[in-house]
Design a protein that fits this description.
With 288 residues, the protein is α/β, with parallel strands linked by helices. Helix content is 36%, strand content 16%. The chain contains ten helices and eleven strands. The strands form three sheets. Strands 3-4-5-8-9-10-11 form a seven-stranded parallel sheet, with helices on one face. The protein has a two-stranded antiparallel sheet with strand order 1-2. The structure holds NADP nicotinamide-adenine-dinucleotide phosphate. The site of NADP nicotinamide-adenine-dinucleotide phosphate has 27 residues, from helix 9.
């Protein structure tokens, strides 16, 4: 049995996906801009993930831009029926790689069309509206206008389900007045636990919470407690960080990102790890 299956399953839209998935952002070049140094290596990572049982891949057409989706298509198309590719819209990159808002109806429509073309799909399974009201974290404000555009694209058959990213609990609740929200993707990890209440509220509704930067993102997590627990369990600190998220709540879906097959294998093996109560208590002292 693949270790991925040990992570358990969770509903994502009308799919059941393994809770341990893969985030494709690291496959583009440095700064998520331009092509990777070794495109063949990126393709190997994607193929190995799917061969290991991963059936949930997170991406966006603004990774690269376009490059990451094109790599996914090259590596995995035609896609197996059970593969759920989740994308996100509402940002664009300028010529220097800066991340800029792109939330107008025309920009969102273009983004959905770009995702469809570059992924080689006729319909996107899940599209996250990534709030760009704040670039670095959720900021209150209305998302009604961009959601209205996504609902029009959904009505045209281009999107099956809608999720939210970088959103506050209030924005999630407001969006739910307009349409079912199948997942929420915001920054959360063992050292950054600001979304605890939101995770629990979504769990009550059986809605997936998908933490981005599960390993700390561009600055991978470092903590003495992680090292100590890892040594105790004969695991790595990154595996402990992922196992902690899996144990945190059954509605958490993991999308750790890596450009390395060795790291991918290490991350997928985190599903075999069970953290005993003593380890959880020690890890609780990592503040957030
Ligand atoms: N909605 C949003 O606004 C948003 C924002 C950011 C990310 N995301 C999504 O979330 C996914 C995950 O986030 P992320 O990739 O930025 O961050 P992450 O998963 O927290 O960490 C990725 C970093 O950790 C390193 N890494 C991965 N596995 C490792 C291991 N076993 N040992 C040591 N280092 C390891 C990677 O480097 P190597 O490549 O060398 O392994 C990379 O530098 C992304 O792929 C993307 O799909 C969404």
């Amino acid at each position: 049995m693949s270790s991925v299956t040990l992570s358990g399953v969770m509903t994502l839209g009308d799919r059941q996906v393994y809770r341990l998935g893969y985030g494709a952002m690291q496959l583009a070049g440095p700064g998520v801009f331009g092509p990777p140094k070794d495109p063949d290596a990126a393709i190997r990572v994607l193929q190995e993930a799917v061969a290991a049982g991963v059936n949930h891949i997170d991406t966006s057409d603004f990774y690269g831009p376009h490059i990451t989706n094109q790599l996914i298509r090259q590596a995995l198309h035609p896609y197996s029926d059970d593969l759920c590719i989740v994308t996100k819209v509402s940002a664009r990159r300028d010529e220097k790689g800066n991340w800029l808002p792109a939330m107008s109806p025309a920009e969102l429509t273009q983004a959905v069309e770009d995702n469809l073309r570059n992924l080689g799909l006729e319909r996107l399974e899940v599209v996250n509206l990534r709030s760009m009201l704040g670039t670095h974290g959720p900021v209150e404000g209305s998302l009604e206008e961009p959601l209205t555009t996504l609902l029009e694209l959904k009505a045209r058959g281009l999107i099956r389900h809608i999720g939210l990213s970088n959103a506050t609990a209030r924005q999630v609740a407001d969006a739910q007045q307009m349409t079912p929200i199948v997942c929420v993707q915001t920054q959360y990890n063992i050292a950054n636990r600001g979304d605890d209440a939101l995770i629990d509220a979504l769990a009550q509704q059986n809605i997936a919470y998908v933490p981005f930067f599960p390993l700390g993102g561009f600055t991978p997590l470092q903590a003495q407690e992680l090292n100590e627990v890892a040594a105790m369990l004969d695991a790595t600190p990154m595996q402990v960080a992922l196992a902690w998220l899996l144990q945190r709540s059954p509605n958490i879906l993991l999308i750790p990102g890596t450009s390395s097959v060795a790291h991918l294998r290490e991350n997928l093996a985190a599903a075999t790890l069970t953290l005993p109560a003593g380890a959880l208590a020690k890890l609780d002292s990592i503040s957030g």
